Amino acid sequence: PLKAFIFDLDGVITESAEYHYLAWKALAEELDISFTREFNEELKGISRMDSLDKILTRGGRMNDFTQEEKDSLATKKNEHYRTFIKKITPDDVLPGIEPLLAEIRSRGLKIGLASVSKNAADVMNSLRLTEEFDVIVDAATISKSKPDPEIFLTAARLLNVAPSECIGVEDAAAGVTSIKGAGMFAVGVGSAETLAEADLIYANTSLLSYEEILAEFEKRT
Ligand code: G16
Ligand code: MG
């Protein structure tokens, strides 16, 4: 039976995926590395340092910087990102998320968060959603970023439920891979092309339907 929902943060609960995009784009362009939305898809759900490495590799500049310089590039991106998230308020919870959380709660199911972001706690507090979640698993708790299944498995373990009793919700290809690797049912939010591995896909959060997700979950398990 279904016992829990585990949500990604950036791009699912709130629009912060767009802020990561803008902050990385500014840094890449400063380094004369072209940056497209298509390439940005590869960074979603990936840790800060791994994202920087992917950008430098793309620009053929992997060997141009010392570790110290790379740390300061990552810090610069994060400072830029933090200027965006400073402005987040409870109004920035994406449409459809609060009704879905209320529905999940009213059925007596558990709710978890799985975000590899070091800023996840601050974003959740700004959204005033921290109390709505039974567990928040972020960069502080895990050692491997998505697409490794560690983060979703850790959330299930802390919620005291089996992975097969969980539904994971993600906007990133790496995140869907992480959910499937954990042995969970995956709901994707975004383009069907990018999220082909998901069991059920919605174009955006306003279309999320508890009844439909439950029906599909019961069909597949
Ligand atoms: C998020 C984003 C990624 C970001 C990562 C690390 O993960 O999707 O783009 O690079 O966190 O974020 P930070 O630099 O804030 O530590 P998630 O899992 O919430 O999608
Ligand atoms: Mg995401």
Automatic annotation (TrEMBL):
Its EC number is 5.4.2.6. The record marks 115, 146 as: Important for catalytic activity and assists the phosphoryl transfer reaction to Asp8 by balancing charge and orienting the reacting groups. One of its GO terms (cellular component) is cytoplasm. The keyword Ion transport does not apply. Binds 2 magnesium ions per subunit. Keywords: Carbohydrate metabolism, Cytoplasm, Isomerase, Magnesium, Metal-binding, Phosphoprotein. The active site is at residues 8, 10. It catalyses: beta-D-glucose 1-phosphate = beta-D-glucose 6-phosphate. Mg(2+) binds at residues 8, 10, 170-171. One of its GO terms (molecular function) is beta-phosphoglucomutase activity. One of its GO terms (biological process) is carbohydrate metabolic process. The keyword Manganese does not apply. Substrate binds at residues 8-10, 24, 43-48, 51, 77, 115-119, 146. Pfam families: Hydrolase (PF00702). It is found in: Cytoplasm. This is Beta-phosphoglucomutase. It comes from Paenibacillus swuensis.
